[in-house]
Design a protein that fits this description.
By secondary structure, this protein is mainly β. The termini are close together. It is built from no helices and eight strands. It has strands spanning 2-7, 10-16, 20-26, 28-33, 40-43, 46-50, 54-60, 65-71.
């Protein structure tokens, strides 16, 4: 299963039920996965994995980040 989406400027927190792979296809964002101390930057063409039953924070500073989320 996959979802497509846009993230506008701001900081958001998303809970995960199943493991997810978030591929950034346009724009860029900063991400902090549960338990991590630091934010990581992801640009178009990169991805990050999030465990199930967890959460992640995502921040878009400017523009729009576009993503494809694959549930595993």
């Amino acid at each position: 299963k996959k979802t497509l989406g846009l993230i506008y400027p701001g900081t958001f927190k998303f809970n995960t039920d199943a493991p997810e792979c978030m591929e950034i296809v346009a724009g860029s964002c900063r991400v902090r996965i549960a338990g991590a101390a630091d934010w990581q930057t992801y640009a178009a063409g990169t991805f990050f994995d999030v465990p199930g039953k967890s959460f992640f924070e995502i921040a878009v500073d400017e523009g729009i980040a576009e993503y494809v989320c694959s549930f595993r």
